[in-house]
Structure formats: structure tokens, C-alpha cells
Amino acid sequence: MASDRDILPDTVKPSHYSISLYDLELGGEWSYQGTVAIDLEIKKSTKEIVLNSLQLKIHSAELKTENTKTEQNFKASDITYDAHKQRVTLAFGEEPPATSKATLVVKFQGTMNNLMAGFYRSRYKPTGSVAKSVPQVDDFHYMFSTQFESCDARRAFPCFDEPNLKATFDVDLEIPKDQVALSNMPEKKKKETKEGWHVVSFERTPIMSTYLLAWAVGDFEYVEDRTDRKYNGARIPVRVYTTRGLRHQGQFALENAKKIVDLFSDIFKIDYPLPKVDLIAVHEFSHGAMENWGLITYRTTAVLFDEAESAQGYKNRVAYVVAHELAHQWFGNLVTMDWWNELWLNEGFATWVGWYAIDRLYPEWNVWGQFVSEGVQSAFQLDSLRTSHPIEVPVKDALEVDQIFDAISYLKGSSVIRMLSAHLTDKVFLAGVTDYLNAHKYGNATTNDLWSALSRASGQDVNHFMDLWIRKIGFPVLTVAEEPGQISVKQERFLLTGDVKPEEDETTWWLPLGLTTGAPGQEIKKHSVKALTAKTETIRGVDDNYYKLNANQNGFYRTNYPPARLVKLGELKAKLSVEDKVGLIGDAYALGVSGYAKTTGFLALIERFGDETDYLVWSQITGNLVNIQSVFSDVGDVHKGLKKFALKLLTPAAEKVGWEAKKGETYLQGQLRVLLIGAAAAAGHEGIIKESLRRFELASSGKDPKAIPPSLRGAVFRTAVTEGGRAAYEALVKEYTTTTSIDGKEICLQSLGRVQTPELAQEFLTFLFSSSVAVQDKHSGAIALANNANVRYELWKYIRENWDQTVFPLLSGNMVVLERFLRAGLAKFASFEVAEEIREFFKDKDQRGYDRGLAVVNDTILGQATYRKRDEEVIREWLKANGYLE
Description:
The protein is α+β, with helices and mostly antiparallel strands. A ten-stranded mixed sheet has the order 3-6-5-4-7-2-1-11-14-13, with no helix packed on it. Strands 8, 9, 10, 12 and 15 form a five-stranded antiparallel sheet that branches. The chain folds into four domains: about 1-215, Sandwich (Immunoglobulin-like); about 220-330, Neutral Protease, domain 2 (Orthogonal Bundle), CATH 1.10.390; about 370-580, Sandwich (Immunoglobulin-like); about 775-885, no CATH class. Helix content is about 40%, strand content about 20%. Its cofactor is Zn(2+). InterPro entries: Aminopeptidase_N-like_N, Aminopeptidase_N-like_N_sf, ERAP1-like_C_dom, M1_APN-typ, Peptidase_M1, Peptidase_M1_aminopeptidases, Peptidase_M1_dom, Peptidase_M4/M1_CTD_sf. Belongs to the peptidase M1 family. Its EC number is 3.4.11.-.
């Protein structure tokens, strides 16, 4: 048994499950009865069988064995539970023999809980008529679905709930006849039971991990299409399921899904292996989506889109999340990581190849620029903390798993894959992936298995230059020194606090340099030096007129140029790709925050971007500038000067883009309008504020419900709540409760957090923690309040004062939800005192399941507090010297 894992005994190994669920109580206690028959190999003779079980009641257990043609039955004489380890031990009076033929039959009772984990129920308000048997409580109706990743199949049925204990599954569900049942495989047959009910049986699944099993029951309808390619002579049906009345909003996801299944079948050179592809919108969902094989579940805003009512930004989200989950059908489902420490194999690859697919479908979206702006920068943020973790991180048990579904596993993982693919070329990289998938299909694999396949495909020792990226924490900053005709580069670990100790800087990363250089009027060329494999190196043949490291930001590192070079690159920005601009701005900001450089370098750089026209570049500029304003929010003169600087920078671009969409406008141009109108209003642009309030009044009063274009709701709502006080707040609460737009509630919560007084903040928090707001959405309100310097302390105050009676009881049923809420809600402070308050409050509490999130919060706050203390006077002097302060 691996020392870093708390896993089940290896005395038995499952090969097949027959699961039958019946007597579903649709209301009241929400209970159900179940029988599971598990075909086993008994590898070692034992009197006990240990399975995973959580919040289940085991009625009975019987073991049937066949050994040398002798059949025996053994009934469990004792059933004991270990709630901490989420296990049940079945003790038999005598010792069954080792045999390859055994079946364990367990009868049990479970609950369709409201925790968004296991087999659970989701509330929703229906659109139109509803099937008679659908349960209703107050204004809400209910659907039922599963969420088993990472370790919650054990909440639904007793099982061997570890990723490398793969098996096949038969599923039978007894449901009301007027509802629909779905599972991973197509329906096989129906059989009537009691009046109004029947059992729906499904075809047997391929061999797979327990966390990929799924089923759903509800008043469902669907839109359908078929793949263009044929699989075993037939085109595969692709469907998007919704509760009744919403199916038309699944059309965009459907159009993408059918194309992406074919695309991945082509690029992986392995046909999609199941006979159907179902996507289903789930009304309450803790994650964004889940890749259950053949029945992919989604949060509604990640799969539904209404061209007339949805904000256009959600179109990008839906397309990407559909692609990400479909990528898992191969990378994760067909081939599964051996243990949760290699979660990144699933998530890092699915993130990269998901964006790869969307780039193929929508090249005009420039998704790699988006990836550098959002994905890479988010990965940098978490990985610049001492409390980060390696991409491949030891995982002991179930509660540890959920906390590593984070920016390291997803975004650093995908960033280093992008770096590797750019080095090998996408063609060679994908050839290696195909080799990997073929070698391990229907089985489990490790990171080293992937490196071996890529090494064979490329003829390079991939493990040699990638191993440290996976197993070591952090990333480097590359500091550049100039001499005539040459540069010297030095790599060292980057930390947000800028105080790296020698023992923290012992890793020498393989860094693809991506160095380009050129003289005025000449073509920019790639330099012959490909990679840095030492701590320092001098590179000759570099033209002083222009050079840039890390072309297109393919490498996962920051670059620290001399201040004069940074200014020059800003002047020569026309030579840079969008990715290069985003990276240059992001690096300058982070180097200022961490103390490797000064924030004044960042401010001087972005001053040169006032005429920029690209949405992704502006997104990076405004995001970084808002963070600086947040840190200095209560330093009166500095905050005032930064706001004046932001207003001057944003005004020409915001006025140029205007309020009305132009004919033939691209998706990115539309997103630029949304960004600039919101940012300019926040910076104090009087004209835009006035127009926002005018439109809000027209829409909220009912005089002109279409006064605010769908994509501009967020910008206008935020401005209205910021400027409009209680009247605007109450109008937006009403909008939240009445909106039928699929993204409407999310947009309202993000805007309500812009309240400006402690009284309204506390009122909003009371509303946020009421039953009016679904548990899955409570973090959206927390993020908005945390980003609002005027009231963020009210959020911490509420958490502290209501922890025992409200916050912990409501959120801790699903630790993913609690950890996300705390990490999102508390990490924006820049105060040593608040960091101490948070540490003191939580020090005596059982932090299992959210300890990693609290550590990230502490590190982040300390880094921001250190930055504030160090750079306050420098920024003040720069603002004075440049006319933004008197």
C-alpha cells in the first residue's frame, strides 16, 4: 500500500456492479432503497470485506462464492461503519476462500440529498406545464441527478470508490412513468412495477471508474442532432437534455458538441467509444460540469444559451465547457489517472485540448489570447504563493482530493502542456497523446506513461525537461540584463512576497526562451538559442533595437526586463501579438506587486496602451489596475490618484466604442464594449454613469424593458447599485427574484455586491444566505463583496459572527462549496491585522476539507499587505510627478 494514500484493503477486486434503485420517496425524507450485486475476485482469503459507504444504511450483505465448482453463501454477521474514513466493514462469521468467482449482494437505503454530491435533488422553478409526479415544495419543483467525482459514488451505493478499481455497470432505476431516466448508456428496456411506475434498465457500461457512473431522473425534454462522422457504420445521436420548457436554449451547446465529438475522434485517432452522447443541464450544481461517460452534467449557465436574452460572454463559456468535458471522454474516462495525485492528467489536458478545439471552431475568438489572460495569469497567482502545491501532489483521502480541483491542477497543468506542445509542435504532441491513449485505453495510467509516449513520438527525452515542472512547486522569473549586442538571463523562483530563501530556489527549470529579435524595418526572427537549462546564461547576437523573450507567452514564467526596455516594448507594441501584450502587462504588474520591480513600471507601460483596440489586452490592463486600486483602497490620496489615472486611460477607448453595437461587429468587439463601459463607469466617467442610470431606470420601472442590451446588464447593474443606493439595490433584488434569463441570477448577484454602505452589505448578506439564493451561487455574492473595498470587511464580519449558526451548517455539507466560498471571499484584504484575525478565528476549528483554502487566503493577504507597505510612497510620488495628484 502506497504510504501517501489511505486506500481500501487489496483483499478483493471488483469487476462488475448490478445496481437497482427502487421505492424512491419523492418528498418527505427523500429516501430510496437499493440493491447492488458486485462481482468480485477474492484475492486473499479474509473474514472481512471493506467498502466505501457514506450516509447509507446497510440492511444486509451476503457473499456468494464459487471455488472448484463448490458454491457457498456467507451472510455478514456484523456491519460496522467508519464515518471518518467513509467506509463500511462487512464481517463474515467464517472465512470465504480466495476465488475469482464471487458476488457480494448488499441491500441498503440512501437519501436523495440536497448537497450537490452523490445522488441528489435540485430545485427549480418550471417553465410551463410539469409532469404530475414531479415533486413540489412551495414554488419549487425537483429533478434528480448524480455527482460522484471525486469520491461521492459512495454516497449513492456501497462501492469500491477508487479510480483504479474499474468495473462495468448495469443500472436499473424505478421511476414514475411520466418522468425520464437517463444513465451513461442507452436504455435497454422498461418493465412495469407498481401502478404508475416502471423500472428503466440500461445497457452495460464499458469498464470504468466509479466516479464516472451517472444517472438522472426528471421531467426532461431534449434537442437532438447526430455526428457527421459514422461510428461502426452509424452516426451517433447527440442530445442536450433540460427540464421542460428550456430545451431551445440547448441548441448552441448541441451544435458545438456534435462537431467536437468528431474533431476529437479525428485528432486522437480513436473513435468516440459509446453509442450516445448526452449533455444535461442540472439546476443545482457544485462545479461547472462533470464528464460522466456518455451522460455529461452541467451547471445551467455552462450549457444553456439564449441568443436573444443571454450575455454574449456566456457563449464563449458554453462552447469551452462543452469541449472540456467532451475531451474527458477520452482523457480521463477511456484512460484514467491511477490515483488522485495525478488529477492534473485529467484536468490539465482537458483544459488545453478544450481550448484547442474552440480555437479550431472559432478562430476569430483568439482563445489562446484569452487563455494567457485568464488561465495563465490565474495559475501564476496561486503558484506564486508558498502555500501552492506541485501539479502532481500527494493525496491521502477523499477530503484532500476536492481541494486540488484548483488553478494548479487545471491551469498550471494546461499551461505546461501548452508550453510542451509549442516546443514539440501540436502535431507531434497529439501523436504522442494518441499513442498514450491506445496503450492504456480502458485502464489507468500515470504521468510517466504520458511522458514516455511523448518521448517516443518526438524522439526527445520529455521526462527530462518536464519532470520538475510537474513535481516541484512554483515557477521562475527570468531577469534580463543588457549589454551591447547581448543579454544575460537569470532564473530564480518567483514569489508574490518577493522574499525567496536560498532553500526555496534550488530548482533549475527547463525554460523555452522563445527569443525574437530584429532591427528597424527588418523581419523579426527567432533566435537560435532555444531553451535555458541553467540558472544563468549570456545570449549573443541580440539586436538592441528590438528583442522579446517568451514569444506568444508559451513558456510558464515571468520576465523581468530593465525599466527602459519595458518602456521601449510599450512603444513598439505594434510588433507584439495579443498574447505578448497580455504577458508583458501581466508580468509588469506582478513584478511590481512582488517587489522584483516597481509598480511605476507597470503604470508607465499601460499609459502607452490608451489607443489599444483589443478586448483581451484591455481585460489584462483593467484587471491588474483594479487589483492595485483594491490594495490601496483606503490610502485616500493614492486611491484618488489611481482612479484619476484610470479615468484618463479609459476615457478615449470607452467613448470610441460607444453604447451601440456596430453592424458586422465581432464577438471580441462586443466584449470590449462591455468591459470598457463597466470599467469607465467604475473610474468615474460621468457621461457613462449617467447613461447607465438612465437605462437602468427605464428597464427597472418597466417603461422600456429592452433599454439594457443583454450583454450590458452586468456593467449597468453594477453602476446602478454603486451609484443608486437603496432604491437601485431593491430594484435589483426584485430583478433577481423575477428574471427568467438563464444567466440573470448570476449577473444580479455579481452586481448586488457593489453596495456602498455597511447596512446594505449586511442586508445583502442576509439575502445571500437565505433560501432565495441557491447554495451553488452563494460564492458569486462573496466574490462581488470581496472585490468591493468599501464593504469587504462586512463579509468577513458576517462570516465570523454567523459561522456556527449559518455559514458552516449551510455550506459544509459539500466541502467544495465551503472552501470555494472562503477562498473567494477572504483573499482580497491587504492587511496584516485582518490576516491575524482570520488565523485566530479558525485556529481551533476542524479545518479538514478547507485548510488548503485558508492557507492560500493567508498567504495572499500577507503578500498584498507587504506590497502595500513597500510601494505606497513610490506610487504616490509617480502619481504626483505625472499630474494625477496635487
